[in-house]
Amino acid sequence: MHFSIPETESRSGDSGGSAYVLRKEYGANVLPAFPPKKLFSLTPAEVEQRREQLEKYMQAVRQDPLLGSSETFNSFLRRAQQETQQVPTEEVSLEVLLSNGQKVLVSVLTSDQTEDVLEAVAAKLDLPDDLIGYFSLFLVREKEDGAFSFVRKLQEFELPYVSVTSLRSQEYKIVLRKSYWDSAYDDDVMENRVGLNLLYAQTVSDIERGWILVTKEQHRQLKSLQEKVSKKEFLRLAQTLRHYGYLRFDACVADFPEKDCPVVVSAGNSELSLQLRLPGQQLREGSFRVTRMRCWRVTSSVPLPSGGTSSPGRGRGEVRLELAFEYLMSKDRLQWVTITSPQAIMMSICLQSMVDELMVKKSGGSIRKMLRRRVGGTLRHSDSQQAVKSPPLLESPDASRESIVKLSSKLSAVSLRGIGSPSTDASASDVHGNFAFEGIGDEDL
Predict the structure, then answer these.
(1) What would the pLDDT profile of 6-15 be if each residue is shown by its tens digit?
(2) Domains, in order of start, for the chain
(3) Disulfide check for 26: which of 30, 217, 403, 434 has CB 3.0–4.6 Å away?
(4) Residue of 268, 434, 266 lying closest to 362 (CA atoms)
(5) What is the pTM of this model?
(6) Residue from 141, 18, 36 nearest 72 by CA
(7) Which segments within 128-281 are labelled E, that is strand?
C-alpha cells in the first residue's frame, strides 16, 4: 500500500518541506510516496503503524542507489524517524553484539546515524579506521534457541538506537558482522589483530550454527587448529568450506524445483543457495549464480481470505513478500524463479551488494576505504577499549545434520515450473537490472 503526501502538507514542516524539495529534484516517479504526517498527536497504535510504514519505506528506498546516495534525502529520513518515535536528542548507552554473542556497550546520541554507531563500536574494539568499511551493523531478532534471524542491514540514514528501541522487544538486537562477500578481502582484515579476531569469532559462530557445512574430518581439523590457537590457519581452512561467509535466512517457500517447495536460502560467494528436501529424498542444494540473473524484483501482496473477498471485520491480512529473479538456465532459456519470504527485501539487498562488489572488482577497484569525515564531524575515540573474546572450542558435530548433495550439475537438467513472469502487477520501474549479468553457454552451466 502506498501513501502520498498532500501538496499542502508537503510544503510545511521540516519533513514535509524536505519531501517537497526531493520531489522537485528527483520527480514523483523516482521518489516513493512517503507515509503522511498528522497534525494532531498520534495514539500508540498510530505510532506503531507509522513506524511500520516508515520501515518499509526505508527498505524500498535502499534499493535505489540514486536516492540512497542523497544527503538531502538521508537527512530527511533521519528526522522522520526521530519525529515519529518522539525521541529527544540525548546521550544513551547502546548494546551491540558480536557474532559470538559478546556484548559491546557504546555511548551514542539518540540522533546518531548508523555510521556514527559503527564508528563508536570500532573505536571501542580498537579496530583501525581503514577497516571499518569491511563491517556493517545488522538488525536481528534473537530466537529462543539463540540463533539470529536477520531483519535487515542498517542503512546510513537509519538511527540505530531509534530503530531497535522502537520495536519495543528485547528479542531485537544490533549485531556487527563483516559486510563483504568475496573471501579474498579477508586478507586485508586478517592483517590486523582485531580484524582477525572478529573474523575468527564470526566463523566459529557460523560453524556452530550449521551455516557453514563441515564434514566430521574437517571439524576435527578445525578443532585441532583451535587448540593450537592458530586463528589464521583456522580461517584458511574455513575459507575452503561450503557456505563460508554466507548469510542464512529463515525457512521459506520457493517454486523451485516445484510449486510451494520448502527451502532454506543462503546468500554468499556471488550466489543464492537453496537447500531443499523433495519427498522421499535426502537434503539437496541448488545454486543460482548472481551473474546469471538478468534482473530481479521484490513485490508485496495481501492474500485474500478463503472465499476471495475481504471483509472489514476480519482485520488486515498479513503482507506477503516475494523475491523473483529471471535466471539464465541454458544458453537460450531464461526462467523466472520466485522465493516467498518475509526477508525478501533483505535478500534483494544482498543481491545488489554482491553485484556492486563484482562491478568494483571488475573495474580494478577495491572495497578498502577510509571512513569518510562528514562536514562538522570528527572521528570518535573511545576512552576504554574492549578486546574481542576468543570463542570456546567447537563442540562435537551434530549427528542429526545431514550431508547435502548438489541438486544437479546442470540446473537446465532440473524440471522447473515455468512462469512467464511473476504474478504481480509491479511496473517495469520496480525491476532491478543486473549490470553483472553475463551471457553464457551450456558448457558453463
Answers:
(1) 333 333 344 4
(2) 1-86 (3.30.1520.10), 89-179 (3.10.20.90), 181-245 (1.20.80.60), 246-301+320-372 (2.30.29.30)
(3) 30
(4) 434
(5) 0.76
(6) 18
(7) 135-142, 148-153, 172-178, 247-248, 252-254, 261-268, 271-276
